[in-house]
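Q: Structure tokens for this one, please.
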Amino acid sequence: MAIEIEIIPCLSDNYAYLVKSGEYCAVVDPSEAGPVQAALAKKGWKLTHILNTHHHLDHCGGNLELKRETGAVVVGPGKDAARIPGLDVGVDEASGWEFDGRKVKVLEVPAHTRGAITFVIDGNAFTGDTMFLMGCGRLFEGDPQMMWTSLSKLMTLPDDTRIYCGHEYTESNGRFALTLEPGNGALQARVAEVKAIRAKGKPTVPATMGLEKQTNPFLRPDNAEIRKSLGVEKSGTVAAFGEIRARKDRF
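A: Here is the predicted structure, written as tokens:
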């Protein structure tokens, strides 16, 4: 049976996700307990696991309350164990993880934080704040080389992989992307679609990795139009990527 995924809006623009398989139910990145509790009650599901992609409180602020209430096992980056509230099981690329008998790929993707990880469950990648739809996270604990390496790792996932990211930043990210690559027809169409989705108050997640490769400027630092827009035609890939990130920081 396929897993079920429920999107839970939290705080002002965060997303947590319920992932259901058989009698198991995990929540990914619960910034606060209340919306998760409400979603569980509505679905009639019992929480068994809490998965954290990184240590920022807007991704793990609900850990302890949910753990107290449900006894759920907290799973997160083993290399950042000291900063994950209530961590029970530390994971990394070598260990992977298992959820209701399903093999879960764990990718170590540092840069936004040094311990950031992505969980990949049955073709669904929970990327936290490393990769957003048409965007990527700020470099709080890494540099452009580190983030480019992490995004390159994510790009090895199959094109039909569904990306579930940590925030609803897609509309703003799309506006920025168009400043760099206005001639990208796929990007133009996507920005229009995203605007329509948000006008209805609906989430833009998930999107496929294949679509991200066509429209996310952070995955496209070697694109000629982007390089021309940035004035970095002769720079290396990492330098061009770093310039995209710096521009987005000021956008």
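A few notes: The mean pLDDT is 97. The CA atoms of residues 45 and 89 lie 22 Å apart.
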